[in-house]
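Q: Could you write out the predicted structure for this multi-component system? I'm mainly interested in how the pieces pack against one another.
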Amino acid sequence: MKQCDVAVAGGGVVGNAIALELARVGLRVCVFDRQKPGQEASWASAGIISPAPENPGMIATVELAKCSAALYPEFVAQVEEISGLSTGYRRKGTLEAIFSRDAKEELSTIIALHHGLGLKAEPLRAEDARELEPALSDEVEAAVLRPEEASVDNRLLTAAVFEAAQRSGAEIFPASRVKGIWREGAHCRGLLFENEKVEAKWTVIAAGCFSAAIEGISQYAPVKPAKGQMIALRADDLEIERVLWSEKIYVVPRNDGRILAGATVEYVGFDKRVTAGGLEKVLAGALELAPRLKDARIEENWAGLRPDSADHLPILGQTDLEGLLMATGHFRSGILLTPVTARLVREWITEQKVSVDWERFSPLRFQSAAAGVTRHAPA
Ligand SMILES: Cc1cc2nc3c(=O)[nH]c(=O)nc-3n(C[C@H](O)[C@H](O)[C@H](O)COP(=O)(O)OP(=O)(O)OC[C@H]3O[C@@H](n4cnc5c(N)ncnc54)[C@H](O)[C@@H]3O)c2cc1C
């Protein structure tokens, strides 16, 4: 029987970043993925590193997101150094375009919200926004510049984190589908596979939107897939420097000249097929925001499944089974939240305390919400 200090179910960017962090402090970490690691949401993502809340429901994640965005430069530097691979990190800022006739009012509301949350944001007149980003539509009435925000090429990052984790001593096992957790009384003793068991002092579930299918997990991580369709474009004579947002869409420039546009949010189960309606929605939003993209060539399209939870918040931390942790449910922000997730899991495993309050994201909140009771996790 295999034995390790920490067994991680899921080799997406979250699972492998946790493995990297723990291997670097000398723990024996094993990561198990049912297929080739890094081929799910971490591959399909847009890679925007923005702690600004997309809607009022996401305000609860802002502190965690700010912390993770602040960790990013150090995180990518470490990953790049250990792996020898680039991550395509770009800290060029983001620009949110406002089309509304009441642009002035909307602009001051957004700026006040950002400043209230301690986020750096500057109001821009339409002409100033177009001077920064000439690709923007003439219909844009105003814009918000968030100068410190960034993006990363999530496919490169995921591959680099995988390599860095392995080079740091983590063992990563592809084609190893986790069937369930190995439970004994109030303890989790590791993971169960079709024909074997792996014993571990700590077990971390990081299987993205598939986490709930692992036996024994659905009560802690009742996640479901939220499909997102994306398109990669390439345009001659069109420079886009920053991530551009509108109410409907985002456009993300990559270092290799590709321009990504996305994404839909659809609740259609585990269906990853690209549809005409999905692409139409993404393209219409992209062309409204930057009409000169109409001549761009379509290089690729794809869909991926975000791990969403009932309250759309991440699911992080200790469960009521000793030794069992969740690190999933990152929904639309898993790339952004990777560094802080890895750090908090490492802190909990090595010190049994965390430097950022993660109580709000507890895996026990779904049970207590159902029963209307106060929850207690083992220390
Ligand atoms: C279209 C799209 C756009 C996005 N844009 C952004 C963005 O701009 N910024 C941002 O921060 N986030 C974004 N996200 C969200 C982000 O990509 C995810 O939150 C993040 O990648 C989740 O990472 P993960 O490692 O938890 O999950 P995944 O990458 O899905 O990895 C889970 C892994 O677990 C494995 N697995 C599943 N079941 C089992 C099992 N039983 N046994 C073993 N292994 C198993 C899978 O094979 C997979 O490799 C986007 C997502 C999508 C789909």
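A: Regarding packing and overall arrangement: DSSP finds nine helices and 18 strands in the chain.
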